[in-house]
Amino acid sequence: MKYIDEFRNGDYAAEVARRIHAEADPERRYRFMEFCGGHTHTLFRYGIPDLLPANVKMIHGPGCPVCVLPMARIDAAIELAVRHQVVLCSYGDMLRVPGAHRTSLQKAKSQGADVRMLYSPADALRIALENPQRQVVFFAIGFETTTPPTAAVLLKAQELKLRNFSVFCNHVLTPPAITGILEPAQQAGERIIEGLVGPGHVSVITGGGAYDSLARRYRTPIVIAGFEPLDILHSILLLVRQCNAGRYDVENQYSRAVTASGNAKAQSMAARTMTLRDSFEWRGLGWMPHSALRIRPEFADYDAERRFELSPSEARENKACECPAVLRGAKAPTDCKLFATVCTPDNPIGACMVSSEGACAAHYSYGHTR
Amino acid sequence: MCLAIPVQVESLLDNDEALVDIGGLKKRISLALVDDVCVGDYVILHVGYALSKIDEDEALRTLELFDQMQALQEELGASLESDGSGD
Ligand code: SF4
């Protein structure tokens, strides 16, 4: 298919890899973090780390929405399904993430709770229309990319005056997460990465301009990248060039889909329905101010957190699971004692092993034998 | 779950929806988040919603860049070869 085949062209890729080898200064080190789980997936799938010089290293960032959601929120979703007996609609990956006491939405489902896996929030709305006697809750997770579709169903539910539909909102924001990674290092006067492969599909919505102040503040070049193997290699080359030139700009490699200001229509739908939370807990990064969204008071009828009483979670993370350090880029999955022994995609201990975009799952599926 | 993919719009439907082809599978998607989508356009699809159009000119511009890189490499390679066999 057009726009896929061309961007997977092996000759081009070999040429870009040769450039990286030619231009990377052997005296320097280049540690680049890819923020998006989608990029992690492509990196492993196409064996990109093997094409890079030894002093160019990729570090996986916290850009997998399944991985950064803390256990307490998973417990709340389970409580909605089990105690409040709603029809709980969730994206597939969330179903297997362990909550407290190693329960999960999938286990709740096998014990009779009405948990449904769906592909689009529009399906949740359809289920609500078809089951007027049941309360239907959409378990909304994800970064700026996934927020506008949730906004679209909130607006639709209001238009249809639905009485049996609500959203359990867990949408999170990318810039605060980047700050959460880079700020502690800056405070300590350390450098943990030389550059950032910026989020591609998040930027489709936010626009590339959203990262200008981060690049300047942390003196770190950011290249927004597409998701084909060639896109990522090209972005690595652009980062090497910025490092060599001592620049720290935001560059847009994914110009076929990303503009400077993003998708204004999607932004305005999200702003009409959702607003900043004072603080939100992230797995690995802890509580961070203004890092997530909640549903606006005008849409309170569609806010599951207001409609249902949720008890405080007694969640305890498995102490041996290194997900928090893996998500901060401080440790590699292979540094975890449980990796590939106790913890596998069939029996995930932490969220990073569940989602295909999680660093542990990607390592396990494509890389751990190497 | 964050994975989004480019798809081509095959036909426009009522209710701000469109039909796309995903690897031979026909799927109904929502165009609620984008304006001015035409049949034949490529869009980025995520959780059932088109997030943006793919700009054909920009896609071609990026590909041209790779073409140039390769052309340059071939030229360099050719000149090295001719140097070697020069005398
Ligand atoms: S290997 Fe498993 S237990 Fe270890 S950090 Fe990854 S998800 Fe957690």
UniProtKB/TrEMBL annotation, chain A:
Gene3D superfamilies, sorted: 6.10.20.100, HypD, alpha/beta domain 2
Molecular-function GO term, any one: 4 iron, 4 sulfur cluster binding
Biological process annotations from GO: protein maturation
Origin superkingdom: Bacteria
Pfam families per UniProt: HypD (PF01924)
Methyltransferase keyword on record: no
Keyword terms of this UniProt record: Iron, Metal-binding
Homology family: Belongs to the HypD family.
Name by which UniProt lists this protein: Hydrogenase maturation factor
UniProtKB/TrEMBL annotation, chain B:
InterPro entries: Hydgase_assmbl_chp_CS (IPR019812), Hydrogenase_HupF/HypC (IPR001109)
PANTHER family, alphabetized: HYDROGENASE MATURATION FACTOR HYBG
GO biological process: protein maturation
SUPFAM superfamilies: HupF/HypC-like
Signal peptide from the UniProt entry: none
Family label: Belongs to the HupF/HypC family.
Gene label: hypC
A GO molecular-function descriptor: iron ion binding
Gene3D superfamilies registered for this protein in UniProt: 2.30.30.140
Name listed for the protein in its UniProt record: Hydrogenase assembly chaperone HypC/HupF
